[in-house]
Amino acid sequence: MIRLLQIEFIKLWNNRASKVLIIAYFILLTFISLVAAIKFDIGPIKFHLAELGIFDFPYIWHFNSFIAAFFKLFLAVVIVSMMANEYSNKTIKQNLIDGLSKWEFIYSKFLTVLALSTVSTIFLFIISFLLGLGYSSYDEISIIFSDLEFILAYFVKLVGFFSFCLFLGILVKRSAFALGFLILWAILEQLLFGLLGWKVTSWETANTIKGFFPMQAMSNLIDEPFTRLSAVQNLGDQIGEDFKFDYAVHWYEILIVLVWTALFIYGSYALLKKRDL
Amino acid sequence: MEKILTVNNLTKKYGYLTAVKDLSFTIEKGNVYGILGPNGSGKSTTLGIVLNVVNRTQGEFSWFDGNTSTHDALKKVGAIIERPNFYPYMTAIQNLKLVCKIKDVSEDKIEEKLELVGLLERKNSKFRTYSLGMKQRLAIASALLNDPEILILDEPTNGLDPQGIHQIRQIIKKIASQGTTILLASHLLDEVEKVCSHVVILRKGEKLYSGRVDDMMATHGFFELKTAQSEALIKHLESDGNFGEIKTENGLTTAFLKEEMSAEVLNRKLFEKGIFLSHLVKRKESLEEQFLEITKNQSN
């Protein structure tokens, strides 16, 4: 396993574009903490984001994992191109001839996905923890470490998403097309959902089915956190709208994404096994 | 003899096209093999199959004693297929380090192998800055990193300039002289003739011949003769039962032997008949002539 990780590390780290993107990704993650500094002080209007309560434990776990998940697109580019480049440079052929088995090849890529997701998750945990310590109104241990399932959901979301990228990279063999396909797929899911709800089933059933689509399943893991803010809730009360949504991370949501991950990795392997290079 | 590779009834079909048809051969340790055949005869496909990058349709192949998995066996093999494939953004050293990791061997042979192929001064240049000849030599260095049991080369001189071709041939000869088993696929017959002891000849995916280069045809060679008395010479040769076909071109008489005869014997016989030669050479057909003969026979 260490050997496979080392192999991928040599490939990634010597590629300037990948290196820049990975570093940029982690710098951007750190920038979340700068949001705390947003402060408007224009005469009577005083606005300080940190005082809205977005950095309160345990809400911060939810908020940060939701925001940080957007940056995953940077790593998606890295992962798609790390797969597609093996095809365009034909190095995949040389790797196999040199004695890497087809499974080892896929496994080494998957290990890289796990490693990047793990580092990103740990990074997110530390940043959120420090931000919380600095700005949270609550600092009891039991409150600080509650709702940590959002961090787990974040990890699963990244692994699922990157596995999808890996699969597309091997399916399409060209990074630009694979990324285009990724966006196309996200749109297709919505179109399919619309079609189902409009013609085939009720909207409620369509919504349930949509929860099984890979991209939707990943986004369901961490629901939007904004309506959960007390400020927004108060606003809702005033206009008589009930903002009581289900924000929790459900076990079945995690399971769906894990199943997709397994399918993507197995699919990548099956494709590679079937193809003549 | 220790077997390195055994191929049994291998078949590969691309849709309706059969690229390799029922191919069987054995590679034994210590020999230098050539796989010969015109373009599209299935050479690269065969190598692709035993190297784990092309899926076979039917048949079997086994490496070494047959108990190792293909990818583990490949760690003891050095192979270059068609064009050299490396990571363009990495230097020669970085690329070779990666290969060492894949093959699970130590990195201390890198400098030695770069020296062997004459790339030591350029070891820190990125792969994409290399010329085709240098790329091909780096590929050979990479294939040698694990001191392989067998070196497989597919068209190693394709697309190179004469100097590059010469360099690659020198390297191959050097490696062969160290006792490494080599399998060389090529359509350049003189290339194979110069280095190979055994050949497998393919045409349209079918094996026409496999065995020693020397035994390729059951002929005894031919004489090239010149004399002022050519009429007497031809008359004598025709009356001698040892000769088959006799032809004369530009004053040079070529007589094909049906049975073994040394040049001395012929010379003495002709001398006794009062025929004096100005030119006497005994030759075997070149690989090219034999190859054309074999492929011609098959097409009839």
Helical content band of chain B: 25-40%
Question: Largest interface by residue count?
Answer: A-B, 26 and 33 residues
Radius of gyration of chain B: 24 Å
Biggest sheet of chain A: strands, sense, closure? 2 strands, antiparallel
Oligomer: heterodimer
The rounded distance between the terminal residues' Cα atoms of chain A is 25 Å
Extract low-pLDDT stretches of chain B.
none
Percentage of residues in strands of chain A: under 5%
List keywords for this structure.
heterodimer, A: 277 residues, 13 helices, B: Rossmann fold, 2 domains, 6-stranded mixed β-sheet, 10 helices, 30% strand
Tell me what you see in this structure.
- The complex is a heterodimer of chains A (277) and B (300).
- Chain A is mainly alpha-helical and 277 residues long.
- Chain A has one domain (2-274).
- Chain A is built from 13 helices and two strands; from the N terminus they run ααββααααααααααα.
- In chain A, a hairpin with a 2-residue loop joins strand 1 and strand 2 (45-48).
- Helix content of chain B is 34%, strand content 30%.
- Chain B has ten helices and 13 strands.
- Chain B has helices at 43-50, 70-74, 92-103, 110-116, 132-144, 162-177, 189-195, 230-239, 263-272, 287-299; strands spanning 3-14, 17-28, 32-36, 58-63, 77-80, 150-154, 181-186, 198-203, 206-212, 222-227, 243-249, 252-257, 277-283.
- A six-stranded mixed β-sheet of chain B has the order 5-6-7-3-8-9, with helices on both faces. A four-stranded antiparallel β-sheet of chain B has the order 11-12-10-13, with helices on one face. A three-stranded antiparallel β-sheet of chain B has the order 2-1-4.
- In chain B, helix 6 (162-177) links the parallel strand 6 and strand 7.
- The two termini of chain B are 36 Å apart.
- In chain B, 37% of the residues are buried.
- The model of chain B has no long low-confidence stretch (mean pLDDT 86).
- Chain A binds chain B through residues 3, 6-7, 10-11, 14-16, 89-91, 93-102, 104, 273-274, 276-277, and chain B through 14, 48, 51-55, 69-75, 77, 79, 81, 83, 85-90, 94, 97-99, 101-104, 142.
